[in-house]
Amino acid sequence: MSLTFHAEAVIFLLMGLLFTGAALFARRNQQARQLRGRPATATVIELIPSRQLFRPKVRFVTADQRTVEAETEAAADAGQYEIGQQVEVTYDPENPENMDFAGAAPAGFRLMLLLGLLFAGLGVLQILGYVLVFEQYAH
Q1: Number of Cα atoms under 13 Å in the Cβ half of residue 136
Q2: Helix, strand, or coil here: 46?
Q3: Do the beta carbons of residue 93 and residue 65 sit within 8 Å?
Q4: What InterPro entries has UniProt attached to this entry (predicted)?
């Protein structure tokens, strides 16, 4: 086995590490917000179209009795939420508009993690010489 490899192997590996790191960083930040945040019961008041998905807008009352309306970061499939539906949220007491559905993963977390692992795995396999992705274009 040779230690020579093409630049694309390193690029795939670095892209994979970047995507994986970004996904894990977003998840860590969201978990920290969940831990320091306050729970509330919210009502879905609007479903805002976002491409082929919808972004629920909710209304809830904070612990100090302020009524807050906020859009969620996560988009949802049609039918996942209905106007008038009660949902549990966690909000930042210093900035209540910064809220998440309780226990929800950050938007795009699974996709970014999957892409990251796929790119990193492909990069490692290229470095080890098991996969030659761009070999046909090398000549």
Answers
A1: 1
A2: strand
A3: no
A4: DUF3592
Q: Give the number of other Cβ atoms within 10 Å of residue 70's Cβ.
A: 19
The distance between the two most distant Cα atoms of the chain, rounded to a whole number of Å, is 69
For residues 106 and 73, the answer to whether their CB atoms sit within 8 Å is yes
Ranges of the chain whose pLDDT falls below 70: 1-5, 103-107, 133-139
- Break the chain into its structural domains and give their ranges: 7-131
Distance in angstroms (rounded) separating the CA atoms of residues 46 and 3: 57
Distance, CA of 42 to CA of 26 (rounded, Å): 23
The answer to whether 6 and 134 are in contact (CB under 8 A) is yes
**How many helices (H) does the chain have, and how many strands (E)?**
2, 5
